[in-house]
Amino acid sequence: xxxxxxxxxxxxxxxxxxxxxxxxxxxxxxxxxxxxxxxxxxxxxxxxxxxxxxxxxxxxxxxxxxxxxxxxxxxxxxxxxxxxxxxxxxxxxxxxxxxxxxxxxxxxxxxxxxxxxxxxxxxxxxxxxxxxxxxxxxxxxxxxxxxxxxxxxxxxxxxxxxxxxxxxxxxxxxxxxxxxxxxxxxxxxxxxxxxxxxxxxxxxxxxxxxxxxxxxxxxxxxxxxxxxxxxxxxxxxxxxxxxxxxxxxxxxxxxxxxxxxxxxxxxxxxxxxxxxxxxxxxxxxxxxxxxxxxxxxxxxxxxxxxxxxxxxxxxxxxxxxxxxxxxxxxxxxxxxxxxxxxxxxxxxxxxxxxxxxxxxxxxxxxxxxxxxxxxxxxxxxxxxxxxxxxxxxxxxxxxxxxxxxxxxxxxxxxxxxxxxxxxxxxxxxxxxxxxxxxxxxxxxxxxxxxxxxxxxxxxxxxxxxxxxxxxxxxxxxxxxxxxxxxxxxxxxxxxxxxxxxxxxxxxxxxxxxxxxxxxxxxxxxxxxxxxxxxxxxxxxxxxxxxxxxxxxxxxxxxxxxxxxxxxxxxxxxxxxxxxxxxxxxx
Length: 586
Prior knowledge:
This protein is mainly α. The chain contains 24 helices and no strands. α2 (about 20-35) packs parallel to α4 and α7 (about 150-170) packs antiparallel against α9 (about 175-195).
């Protein structure tokens, strides 16, 4: 006879016991339905009263919450059923949130004329005191040792849930609707500041208390299970505040509010710091890697025009105002991620270096006003110079510390592009490309001289090609842009001297070849210029053949000199020179 198998769904319900949560939700819904204006005839005749005294609703919600707290105490003290007690603790947090949300309507209807503001303040103050007293009593009754470095932020979050409606309500705080919307947007920021209080690593006594906290669970399950639930409550409370207090008259429908997912960025970035700190202190490599990889998702959340609600009047109007006043949400998230990756890098995470560089590169194209009224375009015309300058300075510092020529090249290119962007904003904008090119060329020569690795040697060939290209462009394009012949000749001559001097210094034949080609090109240009000059001179016909004869004779003597052994001696000397240099490098 086979043993009877318990269905999986029954095991799940038995182990996790979700009926406490279900009962709490039904309690809240039922109490809200009972105390609505005349919609039910349970306590009063239908449509008899407008609103019942809100204190009855407060006492009802507090009674249900107290019932959950007493149940948690009894099942732990007499049954040691910690799994169900954990569910009840989370249900208590849900009830505290429900109490704070339930009286938003009372606050919106409050008025200084009929002293209803005093009632709203008393209700929320009573709810806050009840939440703190019940939480503290339960911690002490169950003998749970939770350090004040975590207990303090917990009570701070509860205080924020209960007191913030009084500060954001246009009726109570005597603010305009626009000011109320800005205060709703500030709620996640204040929650983020409270979250940062949890980033500090616990001291040794606190670690000992957390290891022996009086429950079957150790760090990080205690206390981070509670704070994960609080994090979800912060996100929900941000949205509920917009629903309750954004009472603009021009709404398309009820869900048209100023709330956007980008509101949550000032809260989610501190959450990243907390997760990073936990991973570093506890040496959780997977959590650290996952946090660093998931952090850029905040850029997607911060995009203000993602979602079907972005076409609503109230939302779009406030989003435009937010970008114009506070800055682009994407740019704000980008700066937060830049600080986050920088902090992680300082704390010893090598993966954070890639994230830091990536955020700097994105900051080149995403400015404070991006994704606002003007259509965003990825172009160098709107590029910012400061991220490139910061990246260049950083890479140059690292290249000397690590003796890495690749980082030196990245740093030099970044600084050159930054200089080009800065010049574009001055009267010398026409020379932007020329200045940038020559800064890059000079950087290649310097890097190839300072560093001796294989990559630096490859850069020497690139630099030699750059010198030759610059001379060709100057010879061909100079006259077209109206540059004097003397200026072009001086530039080509200077670059030729540079090629010969650098080639002799580093013993690289490409520079000598470029120098020779420049000389040949220069001589050809001089020859053409001489031919044109002779052709245009107003001299007797007999003189011109004499001048041509002198020119031909000079060329003939030069060719005879080369045939006489000068070319072979030069070739032998240079080959021996470069051969000795190669053996020395080997």
